[in-house]
Amino acid sequence: MYVAVKGGETAIANAHRLLADRRRGDRTLPGLAIEQIIAQLGLAVDRVMAEASLYDRSLAALAVKQSRGDMIEAIFLLRAYRTTLPRFGSSVPIETGAMRVERRVSATYKDLPGGQLLGPTFDYTHRLLDPSLLDDGAIDAPATRDDAGEAVMRVSDILDGEGLIEPDGQMPQDHVPGDITREPMEFPMPRDLRLQALARGDEGFLLALGYSTQRGYGRTHPFVGEIRMGLVSVEFDVAELGFSVSLGEIRVTECQMVNQFKGSAKAPPQFTRGYGLVFGQSERKAMAMSLVDRALRTEEFGEDVVAPAQDEEFVISHCDNVQATGFVEHLKLPHYVDFQAELDLVRRMRAKHAEGRTAESDHQEAAE
Amino acid sequence: MSAAFAHDSNTHDPRKRVIDLLARCSRDELEAAMVTLEQIPSYLRLRGPETGLVIVKGRIGGGGSPFNLGETTVSRAAIHLEDGRVGHGFRLGTDRRAAELSAVFDALWQAETERSFVEQTLLLPAERKQALETDALARETAATKVDFFTMVRGED
Amino acid sequence: MHSKTESLIGGFPDAVLNSQTVFRALMDCLAHPGSTGSVLPAIVPPAPLSIAAGAIMLTLCDHDTPVWLSPAMAQSDVSAWLSFHCGAPLTREKSDARFAFLDKGAALPPFGLFAAGTQDYPDRSTTLVIELDALDGGRALTLSGPGIRDVTQIAPLGLPDSFLHQWTGNRALFPRGIDVVLVAGRQIIGLPRTTKISGLEA
């Protein structure tokens, strides 16, 4: 129950002023520039863009600064901002096969066309804190090597040649891609809508669900067929020109998870796939997304839904951290009247309870 | 619902190259080019400059049916010069001024008299810059390519 | 393709403020059915679109609202203008349209062909914008319902005779049904589905 109450205006204004002070912190230190956040905290910026579902590095960096590094607050800020903008239209689907690849690895094939390209990865670091970063010392320029110019073939295309793996997911012919930002969610949900929801889903939540499938809660026997990260062009159809224009490039991370499938009456045994595609360099998120995508296809393959990661309504309804934080955090808002009612109820119940006991003991005494 | 174009035929329109390259010119580059023009062209706004969203589509599995991945900010502008030439500018991000300048240069490019200026000042440098960046990224990435080798085993 | 400049000029000079002004005028007209509102911004829509209908189009139509145009409008520069300024997709299916624009004298299609919304989402319906000769000087109609104290009268000129009969059928669908905006020149009258309309006894 909500009752309008007035008051606290000065307290709120001063709290926001205090927040601004604490955000700035020690004034003898230089303030953070947005360009520094973009350049040096790039993966934080990427996470904010991915989960806000809005690709804009400058705005995401501003959100990180404004939120003092609170990721979910930053995501919330960017989500709120996007609602103020009109939508011009939708892009031509991006071609991840034509990506300018910055990283590409496969856990299923050692020697594959294009090779294993490690790129800027934390893998194989020793996870030892590096005191040299305490000083702003010179950093070596990247090593270079002549590029053989070999096309970086998609791993799914390699297995596809043998018919051992299911093809890329196809929706029915006349299916128009749904949009969770325009239509209320309904379950069961087609895979295209699920992927949209997962792409903006909370990394931690999806990571935990993906992990749960590995630990036996809806096992899918996954292998990383391929992870690739790099730049793709965003093409936009312009009706008045009669052709599409390239708006620029965005960085995305894609994960093809390959999973065993024992086959069914209809389909012979083959590998099935889970798919992850995320804004920015967000490998963990893309992997988690592909695990959850595959888990959510349980019913499609006639498998039993036995684990949380396979429960579509559970996963999709709870993966959005802006929704989640809104509902959890609303609990701290005034519920004075609510609570007074509860208090009153508990008092009355206690009184009744006490009455009952008295009556019972009277009864017992009388019996004795 | 939106009109679908045959994308492989896109390249036949030389203006695609112009608009695409102008989207990659920085605002500073565009402003500098505008200043070096003999005469700042006068133009009228047809639409914008304005910032909005374009929803970016991906494909299920990388090559399957489209799905909506998320949105990106886009700024665009359409102008017309006094002689009726219409120019369009588009780019990722929120820089409306850059989008408008791009639209002006797209319009200028359409007349032979100003085409070479736009080519020399903006488009060819942008193409060169793009080629250098693409090459540098490919070479840096190639340096992280794994060369597998098998250890000789002592069995013989 | 549509590089004819005529189909590109004449949009809002100041998109944000202009669309807010028009939205406000339209909202007031729909909140007070029968009252006449005016559209002020200096726009130049292509014929046969009037200033009021053009302003409503620029204000309300966008990428997410399929639009149906009467045959004369669909064949004019209006479709390119709509596409350029609003980014709205054209539809031939009246039942897919969120907005429908009819030029002066266009045959009034049966309302039942347009989207009436669903019981769960009655808002998913078509709003018809009908261009008339004038919003006064015609046969008097009596309006009553939400937003009207007692009754009010309008006398639009050029409203087809079938309108009243169709409107009664539309009212019977409530909460589903279409909404109508009558326009002439710069003027607008809103007729939301809640409004009862009857012909004045002679």
Largest sheet: spatial strand order of chain B? 1-2-3
Please indicate the count of domains of chain C: 1
Question: SSE order of chain B, as H and E?
Answer: HHEEEHH
**Spatial separation of the terminal alpha carbons of chain B:** 67 Å
Uncertain segments of chain C of ≥5 residues (pLDDT<50)?
none
* Cα end-to-end separation of chain C: 54 Å
CATH A-level architecture of chain C:
3-Layer(aba) Sandwich
What would you say this structure looks like, in words?
The complex is a heterotrimer of chains A (368), B (156) and C (202). Chain A is an alpha+beta fold and 368 residues long. Helices cover 39% and strands 15% of the residues of chain A. Chain A is built from twelve helices and six strands. In chain A, a hairpin with a 4-residue loop joins strand 4 and strand 5 (243-259). Chain A is globular and about 100 Å long. The mean pLDDT of chain A is 92. Chain B has 156 residues and is an alpha+beta fold. Helix content of chain B is 42%, strand content 26%. In chain B, a hairpin with a 6-residue loop joins strand 1 and strand 2. In chain B, helix 1 runs antiparallel to helix 3 (96-109) and helix 3 (96-109) crosses helix 4 (112-142). Chain B is elongated, with a radius of gyration of 21 Å. The model of chain B is unreliable at 1-9 (pLDDT under 50). Chain C is of the alpha/beta class. Chain C has a six-stranded mixed sheet with strand order 1-8-7-4-3-2. Chain C has a three-stranded antiparallel sheet with strand order 6-5-9. In chain C, strand 5 (141-144) and strand 6 form a beta hairpin. Classes of the chains: A alpha+beta (368), B alpha+beta (156), C alpha/beta (202). Strand 1 of chain A pairs parallel with strand 2 of chain B.
In terms of topology, how is this protein built?
The complex is a heterotrimer of chains A (368), B (156) and C (202).
Chain A: H1 9-24, H2 34-40, H3 42-52, E1 54-55, H4 57-66, H5 71-82, E2 87-90, E3 100-105, H6 155-160, H7 191-199, H8 203-214, E4 222-238, E5 243-259, E6 272-279, H9 283-295, H10 312-318, H11 321-329, H12 336-367
Antiparallel strand pairs in A: 3-4, 4-5, 5-6
Helix pairs in contact in A: 2-4, 3-4, 3-5, 4-5, 7-9, 8-9
Chain B: H1 14-24, H2 27-36, E1 43-59, E2 66-81, E3 86-92, H3 96-109, H4 112-142
Antiparallel strand pairs in B: 1-2, 2-3
Helix pairs in contact in B: 1-3, 1-4, 2-3, 3-4
Chain C: H1 15-31, E1 36-38, H2 51-60, E2 67-69, H3 71-74, H4 78-86, E3 99-102, E4 127-131, E5 141-144, E6 152-154, H5 162-171, E7 179-184, E8 187-191, E9 196-199
Parallel strand pairs in C: 2-3, 3-4, 4-7
Antiparallel strand pairs in C: 1-8, 5-6, 5-9, 7-8
Helix pairs in contact in C: 1-2
